[in-house]
Amino acid sequence: MALYRWLAMGCSVCLLAGSVVGCKSALPSAPQAMNAVGAAGFQAGGSHMLAEREWLQTDQVHRRVMVTLVAGMGKREDNLNGYTNGAFTVAVPLGWTVVVHFRNASLQRPHSLMVVPFQTATAQIRQPAFAGAATPHWQTGTLPQQSASFQFVADKPGRFAFVCAIPHHQDRGMWAALTVTQELTKPRLYVKVEG
Fold first, then answer.
1. What 3-state class would DSSP assign to 150?
2. Is the pLDDT higher at 87 or at 10?
3. Any idea what the CATH number is for the domain that residue 87 is in?
4. Among the listed residues 129, 110, 111, the one whose alpha carbon sits nearest the alpha carbon of residue 120
5. Are residues 115 and 140 in contact, defined by beta-carbon separation less than 8 angstroms?
6. Which pLDDT belongs to residue 52?
7. What is the pLDDT of residue 181?
8. What is the pTM of this model?
9. CB atoms < 10 A from the CB of 53, how many?
10. CB 3.0–4.6 Å: which of 28, 64, 177, 181 could bond 34 by disulfide?
């Protein structure tokens, strides 16, 4: 029998074989957050869902969320926070300010970060989906072991992606999902782990 663990900013739940025990909140799972706009119930779907507090900090009073994204974390170069191909999802309420702290942990290559419409997660990148939603010099990237920050207002609902805008990096899986929805009251972070 598979055991799943889910922690979502204050709600701790154990899942046995996909059934929810002890949480009444209706939150999007990682696949739902990537494939649908809004919060619509929780389904385990064969995934572990983890919320890493150091990657997401919320200021409820000022409707601001601070997201930390690290490129090149761990052994694989083309990842964000150690995850690839949208396995890492941030869900943000509509109208909130999103402050992104980006760090390039790579020892070898520059990386950048930009928010784009979801359908262009693996297409040629031309401009950010929101005003200001990219690291400086996104075409050439942030140098190895350097950091950059940017912020934007999540003023339109929908599905988006945080991508490395260096050519071909997003094609190798260097992107995370972003959902902006009016159905949430506070930001959420979901990580899908196969196994």
1. strand
2. 87
3. 2.60.40.420
4. 129
5. no
6. 55
7. 96
8. 0.73
9. 11
10. 177
pLDDT tens for each residue of 41-63: 222 233 334 445 679 999 999 99
Enclosing domain of residue 87: 53-194
- As a whole number, the mean pLDDT across the chain is 75
Rounded distance, CA 15 to CA 8, Å? Answer: 13
Asked if residue 152 is part of any domain, the answer here is: yes
Instruction: For residue 31, give both structure tokens.
Output: 């696949």
Query: Do the domain assignments include residue 128?
Result: yes
Both structure tokens of 2: 């598979």
Distance (Å, whole) CA 21 – CA 14: 6
Higher pLDDT, 25 or 65: 65
**Cα gap 171→55, rounded to integer Å:** 24
Where in the chain does DSSP place strands (E)? 3-8, 11-16, 19-21, 47-49, 56-59, 64-71, 88-93, 97-104, 114-117, 147-153, 158-163, 175-181, 188-194
Model confidence at 168, pLDDT cuts 50, 70, 90, reads: confident
